[in-house]
Design brief:
It is a single chain. The protein is an alpha/beta fold. The protein is built from seven helices and nine strands; from the N terminus they run E-H-E-H-H-E-H-E-H-E-E-E-H-E-E-H.
C-alpha cells in the first residue's frame, strides 16, 4: 500500500501522529524525512522511543526519501511520511516528480514572524509561498490536525485568521 499520509508537522513523531493518525489509518511504519536527523543516530533513537515496537521507523534525507518512495509504495501495510517544515516538503515534492499527490499540514506552530492561520498553523510569507509551490506541482494541500477534523483547503488556510 502506498504511504497513506504525507504530513508536515514540526513536532515530527509524537502521540498525535502515532496514536491519533496511526490507529485509524492502521499505520505500520513511519518515514521521517529530515537531513539532520537522518545523519544523527542519537536523534533517531530519541524518535524511536516514541513509537510502539510493532511500528517500524525509517530515517532519510530528502534525496534518499524521494528515491525510496516507489519502494514504500510496494509495502503491504500503510505508513506515514513526516517532515518537520514546509521547505523540506517542498524539496521532497519537487524531487518526487509527481509521486506525491496530497500533503497534510498538521502542525506548524507559533514562532516570531509567523501569522496565525489556524490554532495549529502559523505561517511566514515564505512558508505560504512554499505551500503554493507544493500545490503548483499538482499536489492537494490541506490542513488537518486530527483525522476527525475537516480538511481545510489551502486557499481557505491562507486567508484564515482563526489562529490569530
Amino acid at each position: 500500500m502506498p504511504i497513506a499520509l504525507y504530513r508536515i508537522d514540526d513536532r515530527l513523531i509524537h502521540g498525535q501522529v502515532v496514536v491519533g493518525w496511526g490507529q485509524p489509518l492502521e499505520l505500520r511504519f513511519i518515514v521521517l524525512v529530515d537531513d539532520e536527523v537522518a545523519a544523527s543516530e542519537w536523534e533517531q533513537e530519541l524518535y524511536r522511543m516514541g513509537v510502539p515496537p510493532e511500528m517500524q521507523v525509517f530515517f532519510h534525507g530528502v534525496d534518499e526519501a524521494a528515491a525510496q518512495l516507489a519502494t514504500y509504495a510496494q509495502r503491504t501495510e500503510p505508513g506515514v511520511l513526516l517532515v518537520g517544515d514546509i521547505g523540506t516538503m517542498e524539496r521532497l515534492v519537487a524531487a518526487a516528480r509527481g509521486a506525491i499527490r496530497a500533503v497534510n499540514v498538521g502542525g506548524v506552530h507559533h514562532s516570531p514572524g509567523r501569522t496565525g492561520r489556524l490554532r495549529y498553523v502559523f505561517l511566514t510569507a515564505a512558508e505560504e509561498q512554499g505551500l503554493r509551490a507544493i500545490e503548483a506541482h499538482g499536489v492537494d494541500v490541506t490542513a488537518q490536525d486530527v483525522p476527525s477534523a475537516r480538511p481545510v483547503p489551502l486557499a481557505e488556510l491562507l486567508t484564515s485568521t482563526a489562529g490569530a
